[in-house]
Design brief:
The protein has 340 residues and is mainly beta. It has four helices and 24 strands. It has a single domain, classed as AttH-like domain (AttH-like fold, Beta Barrel), CATH 2.40.370.10.
């Protein structure tokens, strides 16, 4: 019996969320995830040489998911004009029967959730939808995303009409594909400029557009992305074997992209949640203090239960190598639980 089969068998037998798993499969899972993290480091450099048309094929295509497989898309828009406007649209499906906030996410159907803040918070989509795919198009009854690298369009009813374009400076995309034993992870990230309307109001800012295929359990993580008015951006990601910030990280990475487009790797970073939904990210030579101004929870139920909370935040104090700035906004993901 392989690692994923062992974990699935235990999920079927414990019949309750939160009891945990036996030490054997848990240690093997941690070992494989650590190995995957080490192998991941050189791949973005290698895959930048790939044909971008093939990456578009991956982004707009559907994958045949094996047991434990999940496929999802994620779009995050953040204003760089000082108005704190943000929009998040995420949709995906799983091999196993799964529900996201009560919405089915299996086979041809995706669970889709969309929300934004443009003067006030609004959830504009929370529904199970049939997803049509084709060359350069993802389409449901609620939204359409179409185009080819590096120009795309998103139309989501009255919620959003956005055009995406390649930024003048900085890395426009990265791709990652790793496989370790039964675990598999594929990811394509686009870093684009965005303009149009959100909630009927004019929008201009930065876009983070992502497609992920993963064959592995969901375990706790934190992700944060801050965008500043000069279009510089900070990204942080950490995976942990236990809930939230308890215990050591299995893997973490952090970068700061300067306004010039140059990307600097950050070391020894940690994200902490403070009282009243405030946050502090600290690392060698970098500090960011953030306040939550909008919140959207997700509950994912299938073979296990996973909680995924999104916080739109304002960065009120940021320092990088003794240079201080303010007026940044972004998103923090606080994910915890376990789901196969």
């Amino acid at each position: 019996m392989g690692l994923l089969e062992e974990l699935a068998a235990e999920l079927d037998s414990i019949n309750a969320y939160g009891k945990g798993f036996s030490k054997g499969p848990g240690r093997v899972l941690a070992k494989n995830l650590e190995r995957a993290a080490r192998l991941a480091k050189p791949f973005p450099r290698v895959l930048r040489q790939r044909n971008l048309a093939k990456l578009d094929d991956f982004f707009f295509g559907r994958q045949a998911l094996p047991p434990g497989g999940k496929e999802y898309w994620f779009i995050d828009l953040a204003s760089t004009t000082g108005d704190k406007a943000q929009l998040v649209l995420t949709f995906g499906s799983s091999h196993f029967k799964t529900r996201v906030n009560g919405q089915d996410a299996q086979n041809e159907k995706v669970a889709a959730v969309g929300w934004y803040h443009s003067g006030k918070r609004k959830v504009f989509l929370e529904k199970s939808l049939l997803l049509e795919t084709g060359k350069g198009v993802l389409k449901t009854d609620a939204f359409t995303f179409r185009g080819a690298y590096p120009s795309y369009d998103l139309v989501a009813g009255k919620a959003a009409a956005i055009k995406f374009s390649k930024p003048a400076r900085g890395l426009p995309y990265e791709a990652l594909a790793i496989s370790v034993g039964a675990l598999e992870f594929k990811m394509y990230n686009l870093y684009l400029d965005a303009s149009g309307t959100i909630g009927g109001k004019k929008f201009a800012g930065s876009a983070y557009v992502q497609k992920v295929v993963v064959v592995a359990p969901f375990i706790p993580w934190n992700w944060a992305r801050l965008v500043f008015e000069d279009s510089s951006a900070l990204d942080f990601f950490a995976v942990r074997p236990q809930r939230r910030d308890i215990g050591a990280n299995l893997f973490h990475s952090a970068t700061y992209r300067l306004a010039s487009g140059k990307t600097v790797k950050l070391s020894d970073c940690r994200l902490r949640r403070l009282a009243k939904d405030r946050w502090l990210l600290e690392g060698k030579g970098v500090t960011a203090y953030m306040k939550t101004y909008a919140f959207k929870p997700f509950v994912i139920k299938g073979r296990g239960e996973f909680h995924y909370d999104e916080y739109m935040v304002e960065c009120t104090d940021f320092a990088f190598k003794n240079v201080r700035k303010q007026a940044g906004i972004g998103l923090i993901e606080d994910a915890y639980g376990f789901m196969f």
